[in-house]
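Review form for a predicted model. The reviewer records the input and the model, then writes brief findings.
Reviewer: anonymous (R2)
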Amino acid sequence: MNKLILLAIAVAALALVYLSLGGTAPTNPPRSDRGSAAVPQSAAGLTPLPPPMTPVTAPAFERRADAPTSLTIAAPMPTTVPGPSSQYGRPPNAPMLTAKSGEVRDTLRRFYANLPQSGRLDGPVHADDVLPLSLLRDWNIPAASVVTQIGERAVTDIEAVPRVLDRPADAWFMVGFTIITPDGREIRDYVRVAP
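Model under review:
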């Protein structure tokens, strides 16, 4: 019993110290203004919100008067990944290769048709499996090189080949291939595919 009295006295003393140091006693929460004259009772009394976006009247960037009207890019895409040089691949100053759509499509269709039912590859995909021999010759890539990417997808992705084959046959397009040559060098190069 004495312990309870001492505990009650201690709590009261702490409360007095708290209030004397500027603390406030708990109060009831403020009442809602609903129904008062300060709250509009209909939509007519509401203030409209500003528009979400202000219209643009001037361009964000001004073009300099002395800026060239068109730019010429010498090498729009890298022919090789930076690193030690390789005896394989297209020389950096050589133009991008162009291949006929039929050659590229026939080679890719043959590869795609010979995939296992599971869609999983049993081993590496060699360059002569997915690229026409004329392109390998012009590109200076050995047939035993391993292809790791077709377009922007890994060669193991079941959608890699259909994404190339689904392109319109009567339109120009570009497709990239990432190849690891026998000397271990990884080459990323692009082919323009002509209709």
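Findings: The longest helix spans residues 2-20.
Further findings: The helical segments are 2-20, 101-113, 127-130, 133-139, 160-165.
Recommendation: see findings above.
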